[in-house]
TrEMBL record:
Residues 7-193 form the Ketoreductase domain. Keywords: Oxidoreductase. SUPFAM superfamilies: NAD(P)-binding Rossmann-fold domains. PROSITE patterns: ADH_SHORT (PS00061). Belongs to the short-chain dehydrogenases/reductases (SDR) family. Gene3D superfamilies: NAD(P)-binding Rossmann-like Domain. It comes from Candidatus Litorirhabdus singularis. NCBIfam families: PRK06194.1 (NF004843). InterPro entries: KR_dom, NAD(P)-bd_dom_sf, Sc_DH/Rdtase_CS, SDR_fam. This is SDR family NAD(P)-dependent oxidoreductase.
């Protein structure tokens, strides 16, 4: 995809972090925006700021785990602009812990957003992209989709699935048509608020979190913020990487090229040598650029 000006970009998870950076980068290139996020207040703030800067913005609160809501987003985009050229399936949540200790509701929440959200986006928007002279899909996975660190459970499982899904989508679209490109974004540590995503986890009204649970959540968020503020790269850098990758028709987009390649090579070597996984925990995720 070479032209961005006056084309239409749909971005999920657009109220903060990488999604907001993608929205700003798309706006800077003259694109019309369709922004979705489960956090309505943050989404409204982001949309208002972009409109103040002169961008055309349709903002729609959307839970990507619900197929009806994603389809409604696609319908609204077509009603507003009549076309979609760029789809960023970016919405995602964190999720870690010991595999056998996490309850099923936790597993379902993470996988429903991180994997099913991408599936719903592909199903609702790909037919619209196929109608354009050029278009592109960017699925946000993670370096966790290319390596497996104990303690990152549902998150890593979901991101491996997004990488595989994107690889299959690339092959199927290449066979079907040459006008829709695909990229999978696999960042390592980025300075976003993904560590606080559990705030948006649906709660059981009959079993709300108690004071101890809320206190633990706040403590985890404080630790996460301190770490990501120190080690994470700016999301704006990721957004520029994405748009450069779209123009170059790159498929795998790595935010930490050196550190990521080292981990990928380590994993592939273990597979080819009939070895064992060599990653011991979240601390093995690349920080080195």
């Amino acid at each position: 995809m070479k032209q961005f000006d006056q084309r239409v970009a749909v971005i999920t998870g657009a109220a903060s972090g990488i999604g907001l950076a993608l929205a700003n980068a798309a706006a800077a290139r003259g694109m019309k925006l369709v922004l979705a996020d489960v956090d309505k207040a943050a989404l409204d703030r982001a949309a208002d700021a972009l409109r103040t800067d002169g961008s055309q913005v349709l903002a729609m609160p959307t839970d990507v785990s619900e197929p009806e809501q994603v389809q409604a987003l696609a319908d609204a985009a077509m009603a507003e602009y009549g076309a979609v050229h760029l789809l960023c399936n970016n919405a995602g949540v964190g999720g870690g812990g010991c595999l056998w200790e996490m309850d099923l509701d936790y597993w379902h929440w993470v996988i429903n957003v991180n994997l099913w959200g991408v599936v719903h986006g592909i199903r609702s928007f790909t037919p619209l992209l196929l109608e354009q002279d050029e278009a592109h899909i960017v699925n946000t996975a993670s370096i966790a989709g290319l390596m497996s660190a104990p303690g990152t459970g549902p998150y890593t499982v979901s991101k491996h699935a997004v990488v595989s899904l994107s690889e299959m989508l690339h092959g199927e679209l290449k066979a079907a048509t040459g006008n829709v490109g695909v990229s999978v974004l696999c960042p390592s540590f980025v300075n976003t608020s993904i560590y606080s995503s559990e705030r948006h986890r649906p709660e059981d009204p009959a079993n709300p979190p108690d004071a101890a649970t809320l206190a633990e959540r706040e403590a985890v968020e404080a630790l996460g913020k301190a770490f990501f503020d120190d080690a994470g790269i700016p999301p704006e850098r990721i957004a520029e990487l994405v748009f450069e990758g779209i123009q170059a028709k790159d498929f795998y987009l790595l935010s930490h090229p050196q550190g990521s390649r080292e981990q990928i090579e380590k994993r592939m070597r273990a597979i080819l040598d009939n070895g064992h996984p060599g990653v011991s925990g979240a601390g093995d995720f690349p920080i080195q650029l």
